[in-house]
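Blinded run. Sample ID left blank on purpose so nobody reads anything into the name before looking at the predicted structure. Input follows.
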Amino acid sequence: MVEHLRIFIEGWVLVELASRTGIVSGTASAFSHNNGRTGIVNEHFNTVEHGLSSLPRETFDEAKSWLLQYRASKNKNFKRTNPQKYRNTLTKTIYTLAGKLGWIDSELYVFASEKIGYATPITGLSDLGNNQLELVRDRVRYEHTKRTVKTKQAKARQDNDA
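Blinded prediction complete.
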């Protein structure tokens, strides 16, 4: 799993280098960029001391999803240079977060319709434009964060009571 995440990060670095320079030039710059990305993942998932090898298996998908979100949010030109890939990243993020919330597709579509202000439910995320997908992603992310915080607070209360 950890090796898969490293390969994912390295692939991301190579795509970024290719998009910025037109070609991938040398492994030294890719290596330095990779260390920066790995450091960001390590900090976010509290694996700084022992690195990615200490990342629990159950958080691997979350780490990959978070890295996709981070990539989309940090690369300002990503939306313009590769709009389909940007759209795919948004869609994957939305479906991943909705799955963690236990939502089936129809529930997600009703939620998206409400947040966008459509009178009727949408039939799929392909019905939405990029700005609408960004809005839905942000709202689903908010719902996921809200649920995660409530769960952690309830667990902390139980631990304090015990």
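Unblinding after everyone has recorded impressions. The CA atoms of residues 10 and 34 lie 6 Å apart.
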